[in-house]
Design a protein that fits this description.
The structure is a homodimer of 102-residue chains. Chain A has one domain: Alpha-Beta Plaits (2-Layer Sandwich). Chain A has 3 helices and 4 strands; from the N terminus they run E-H-E-E-H-H-E. Chain A has a 4-stranded antiparallel β-sheet with strand order 2-3-1-4. In chain A, 33% of the residues lie in helices and 34% in strands. The radius of gyration of chain A is 14 Å and the shape is globular. With 102 residues, the first copy, chain A, is an alpha+beta fold. Chains A and B meet through strand 1, helix 1, strand 2, strand 3 and strand 4 of A and strand 1, helix 1, strand 2, strand 3 and strand 4 of B.
Amino acid sequence: MILEAAVLNVIAGQEAAFEAAFQQASALIAATDGYNGHQLQRCLEKPSQYLLLVHWRSLEDHTQGFRGSARYLEWRALLHHFYQPFPTVEHYTLVMAQTPKP
Amino acid sequence: MILEAAVLNVIAGQEAAFEAAFQQASALIAATDGYNGHQLQRCLEKPSQYLLLVHWRSLEDHTQGFRGSARYLEWRALLHHFYQPFPTVEHYTLVMAQTPKP
């Protein structure tokens, strides 16, 4: 299991339009083989900054499966014009996780 | 619900020691009122880089509850010497989340 993480800096004033476009774009990523869920989080300290987290079965499901698909062209057209600067996308593997004791 | 996120850059060569110290430090954060789980992720592209994600009931549970506690002094002593540069910690609220269709 791989976690894709990207800090997204959206052009100030375009946050609502970005969030609406992101809702629409979500179906594109969710239709990918190996997709295991995603979330969009908005920063309290910097309200034009978002954190995108996507769970993938493997790195290649993202880098080849999704990015190599026609749906990625739609994703790009919907979202990439909101970003300034263009985000760095990184991938992570879990070291440890803990949940609260019941 | 608040997500605390911090990109942690660990001094190269100290990754294993950091991970062991982090396991030990986890009990300190988990004992905090309002703690709702955390995970440590390691970057594939930059193996000295980690992503810490902590779920909190509220911002203050982290900034006042945990950081104001004696356990935070232990956390700092266990972990802060591994970081170069010192990390920026940010807080996020959920915009949207989606899981795969069954």
